[in-house]
Design a protein that fits this description.
Chain lengths: 116, 114
């Protein structure tokens, strides 16, 4: 069975600085998808970034980028130029490529605080 | 184009009562997933449904919990005879028939059992 591990329960960063959130996963599959979701206090789950395992190029979305190391099964999220609005809980998630409707497997999350 | 709609946003039930949580997927999405989030935890998969079919219920507790996604109307997660341990946030997500996109989540229903 696949597992997702986020080893940092809490992280903090100052405005305008860069922070990296760690995520590792365990799978025997070669094709899969990885995601980072943001959950602010409103509780809404917001998709931040997505990575297909078959792509070597790391995904980027504006200030958000990932460092995907397939051999090491590592998928970290880098937030550049941090803003107060980035404060939230961040979840790393895995999805198998086997079926179109396969459920997501989540890590326990990292709470990110941003100070001015 | 409305997103995934969940209601109610908050639900309070006494022990032993029934809780019904509703989820309307995004337009064009035919796959619905229910997840449960306990305090300080990530989301745990419960059940995956398509219209009139339960595809995967491996994450559902064996008793008291059931889910449906009828031909017409929203998907329903039903919890009978609720206990304090059922208190959690319940999220619904939907996805299109095919595709590698991340799922779209609703805002969740916070169930409190008193």
């Amino acid at each position: 069975a696949q597992t997702v591990t986020q080893s940092q329960p809490e992280m903090s960063v100052q405005e305008a600085e860069t922070v990296t959130l760690s995520c590792t996963y365990d799978t025997s599959e070669s094709d899969y998808y990885l995601f980072w979701y943001k959950q602010p206090p409103s509780r809404q789950m917001i998709l931040v970034i997505r990575q297909e395992a078959y792509k070597q190029q790391n995904a980027t979305e504006n200030r958000f980028s990932v460092n995907f190391q397939k051999a090491a099964k590592s998928f970290s999220l880098k937030i550049s130029d941090s803003q107060l609005g980035d404060a939230a809980m961040y979840f790393c998630a895995y999805r198998s490529e086997d079926q179109a409707g396969t459920a997501l497997i989540f890590g326990k999350g990292t709470t990110l605080s941003v100070s001015s | 184009n409305a997103g995934v709609m969940q209601n109610p946003r908050h639900l309070v039930r006494r022990r032993g009562q029934e809780a019904r949580l509703r989820c309307s997927p995004m337009k064009g999405h035919s796959h619905v997933y229910w997840y449960r989030q306990l305090p300080e935890e990530g989301l745990k998969f419960m059940v995956y449904l398509q219209k009139e079919n339960i595809i995967d219920e491996s994450g559902m507790p064996k008793e008291r919990f059931s889910a449906e996604f009828p031909k017409e109307g929203p998907s329903i997660l039903r919890i009978q005879q609720v206990v304090r341990g059922d208190s959690a946030a319940y999220f619904c997500a939907s996805s299109p028939l095919v595709g590698a996109g991340g799922y779209t989540f609703g805002s969740g229903t916070r169930l409190t059992v008193v």
